[in-house]
Write a structure and sequence with these properties.
Layout: H1 5-9, E1 52-55, E2 59-62, E3 84-87, E4 92-98, H2 103-109, E5 114-124, E6 131-139, E7 145-151, H3 156-159, E8 164-173, E9 180-188, E10 197-208, E11 211-215, E12 221-222, E13 227-234, E14 245-250, E15 256-257, E16 264-265, E17 271-274, E18 278-283, E19 291-299, E20 303-307, E21 312-316, E22 325-330, E23 342-343, H4 383-386, E24 387-391, E25 397-399, E26 403-412, E27 418-426, E28 431-433, E29 441-443, E30 446-454, E31 459-468, E32 472-482, E33 489-498
Parallel strand pairs: 12-22, 25-33
Antiparallel strand pairs: 1-4, 2-3, 3-10, 4-9, 5-8, 5-10, 6-7, 6-9, 11-13, 13-19, 14-18, 14-21, 15-19, 16-19, 17-18, 20-22, 22-23, 24-26, 26-31, 27-30, 27-32, 28-31, 29-30, 32-33
């Protein structure tokens, strides 16, 4: 699958882990606050200057008074809502709060090791369609949007036409270039005279993300004999449950899986598929789990074999290794053994291969080994040659507050089917994504569709809705990629928003 397919297709106390074999974890995210970054997101105090409001005022209302519901979820279970909730007023309300990121927060975000958890209780009143949604917008130093998280309003159908709430949550990796963030509450009245979309416990927390490292056994490694290699997926220091992650671990040239023993894992939440030259690993870390391991036997010829960080590919939801590691393999006849099978980080000069020693006529092996390692697959065809992406929207000129549709067409112009195609749209900060039933899912500041199969010559047309939020000129970028294609196909469409 391509780089974001797992995110699209899967439902969503410090710990120190030694970097055995020289592939270390990034430093712990010590700068994380561990607290809610949203001020007065619970309605327990009257909204103040922390919220910049346009349209009708943002109000704190007491549970159980007038027509306001109790703090209950859909189905009747209570939740801790305190004494009050937040409600907009008038036809529309938009309340924006700039989150206060400390220097420590920004420093650890810059390492690329942090996820943001946006959460809230979102609800409404009986069968009325009045609604409120929550969005977190993360920006870089130039003010461009690098990540947008959204909690959709709760519909009357979702509530069973009963005044109640649903717990909404969105967790995404914060891009390393993010330096600021806003939380936006957007309310709208559809029925009656009051704006009866309700929200409570609006929160943004920074949490760490898992990391992967690799290790070898400490004893000398013998050419041609199966040797266990272990990939460790270590939880972040908060030990909280994490969304699904995935990666592909490719083996260095000359190294191949070489045992009839199956690949082993210490966690029942992890699934592994493998061929002779790569392992595909996907899973999740439940709350309280410090780590999961995946162990496979490999065989390698005499020499020095580098496991580079780039050999961990298509990593989603976790940190790649920070360093390379080296596996030293001696000839089977070299009884002196002189040294362990592990060397630490690769020095700056390019690694050299040890001089080859004569092999014995029949070296001892634990299992049969192929005469030669399998060859690497041929270069993948380019996505830019196989796929064409075009967009007829948004309009070249929009006014602030106007809605627009972004229509995307992806066509397979190759002579064979393409599978697991991910088509993604990244909107500039001038435009806001609107929660509609487009089928697009949020992935690291974009909205993406997963197209399982695109036959030769066929095309798919996709659509999402957006709203012009502020004036300026910007570009909408659309990309398409697939696991069986190299690179991405892309197109840009300029747009201008005026008053």
């Amino acid at each position: 699958m391509s780089s974001c397919s797992i995110l699209l297709r899967r439902v969503s106390a410090a710990v120190a882990v030694a970097a055995v074999g020289g592939m270390g974890m990034a430093p712990a995210a010590a700068g994380m606050t561990g607290t809610n970054l949203v001020v007065h997101g619970d309605g327990e105090a009257a909204p103040g200057p922390e919220w910049v409001v346009s349209g009708g005022p943002l109000l704190a209302q007491r549970y159980g008074t007038a027509h306001f519901p109790a703090a209950v979820l859909v189905g009747g279970d209570p939740f801790d809502g305190g004494t009050s909730l937040l409600q907009g007023s008038g036809a529309t309300t938009e309340a924006i709060q700039a989150l206060e990121l400390t220097p420590a927060d920004r420093a650890v975000i810059a390492t690329g090791t942090v996820r943001a958890r946006l959460s809230a209780h979102v609800g409404g009143y009986i069968s009325q369609a009045d609604q409120v949604g929550v969005t977190a917008v993360w920006r870089d130093a130039q003010g461009a949007t690098v990540l947008e998280q959204t909690l959709a309003p709760v519909t009357p159908a979702e509530r069973g036409n009963v005044s109640s709430f649903l717990a909404r949550e969105d967790v995404d990796a914060v891009p390393a270039e993010a330096v600021s963030a806003d939380v936006v509450l957007s309310g709208r009245r559809f029925d009656g005279t009051s704006q009866d979309g309700f929200v409570d416990n609006v929160a943004v927390h920074l949490v760490g993300i898992p990391g992967v490292s690799v290790s070898f056994p400490g004893e000398p490694v013998v050419a041609g004999r199966p040797t266990p290699v272990t990939w460790t997926i270590a939880n972040s220091e908060d030990l909280q449950g994490k969304p699904p992650w995935r990666f592909v671990a490719t083996l260095p040239d000359g190294v191949a899986l070489g045992s009839s023993r199956p690949v082993a894992t210490t966690c029942d939440t992890v699934r592994v598929s493998a061929d002779r030259t790569a392992l595909r690993v996907e899973g999740a870390l439940p709350a309280g789990a410090p780590a999961c391991t995946v162990t496979a036997d490999v065989v390698a010829p005499q020499g020095r074999h580098v496991f580079a960080p780039a050999d961990v590919r298509q990593a989603e939801g976790l940190r790649r290794p920070a360093e390379a590691a080296v596996l030293l393999v001696r000839a089977a006849a070299d009884d002196a053994g002189a040294g362990p099978g592990i060397v630490g980080p690769v020095p700056p000069p390019a690694p050299t291969v040890l001089p080859a020693a004569p092999r014995p006529a029949a070296p001892p092996v634990a299992v049969p080994v192929p005469a030669a390692p399998p060859s690497r697959p041929a270069a993948l065809p380019r996505a830019a040659d196989a796929l064409t992406v075009t967009t007829a929207a948004p309009a070249a000129h929009l006014r602030v507050g106007r809605r627009t549709s972004v229509r995307v067409r992806v066509r397979n112009r190759s002579s064979r089917p393409v599978t697991d195609v991910d088509v993604c749209v990244r909107l500039p900060r001038l435009l806001l994504y609107l929660p509609t039933r487009s089928g697009a899912q949020p992935v690291e500041g974009r909205r993406c569709w997963a197209v399982e199969r695109l036959p030769a010559g066929a095309f798919r047309t996709l659509r999402l809705d957006a709203k012009a939020a502020r004036r300026g000129r910007a570009t909408v970028r659309v990309t398409a990629e697939a696991a069986e294609l190299a690179g991405i196909a892309t197109t840009d469409r300029p747009t201008r928003v005026t008053r």
